Amino acid sequence: AYTVHQAGRWQQRFDELVEFKNEYGHCCVPSHWPQNSPLAQWVKRQRSQYKLKKEDRHSNMTDERGNALGDLGFVWDSHAIFWEEKLSELFSFRDIHGHCNVPTKYPDNPQLAIWAKCQRRQFKLFTTGDKRSNMTLERLSKLSDAGFVLFNQRNLKNGRN
């Protein structure tokens, strides 16, 4: 059972998430968001509680809360959010440099360089039918639309694909 205080705090954070969505157009609060750190932590906790509930383990996530978050457009998969954040960073890179060829060593955003390399590796796994790939047709489409090259030219010249 929830105390009135806990229920009120949940509703307060939910209302803050509604405000976030109204301002930014989505519910993907960054995990480290200095403008509202308690909201960022709350969002993370909602994903964790939802996962516990789906595994039939003890959870504070009620059907009502899950439905309210789902109706708002809440993204339950944090890996998908991370991917979308990196895609957004790729667009920013393209806007600055005029292309999507993130250098292997990119001091301005080393994590983006790692992510770009990983996308090529995931693409290779995907094309060989490897079940470990997290690449999807939707992601391929988004990368292609951005102008991202999914295979490394150097590897093609060396006969390694």
Q: TL;DR of this structure?
A:
The chain is mainly α and 161 residues long.
Textual characterization of the structure:
This protein is an all-alpha fold. Helices cover 63% and strands 0% of the residues. Helix 1 (4-24) packs across helix 2 (37-54). The longest helix has 21 residues, at 4-24.
Low-confidence stretches: 155-161
Radius of gyration: 19 Å
Mean pLDDT, all residues: 88
Strand content: under 5%
* Strand count: 0
Distance linking N and C termini: 57 Å
Biggest β-sheet, characterized?
none
| Element order: H for helix, E for strand | HHHHHHH
Classify the helix fraction into a percent range.
55-70%
> Helix/strand-derived class?
mainly alpha
Overall geometry: globular
* Total of DSSP H or I helical runs spanning 4+ residues: 7
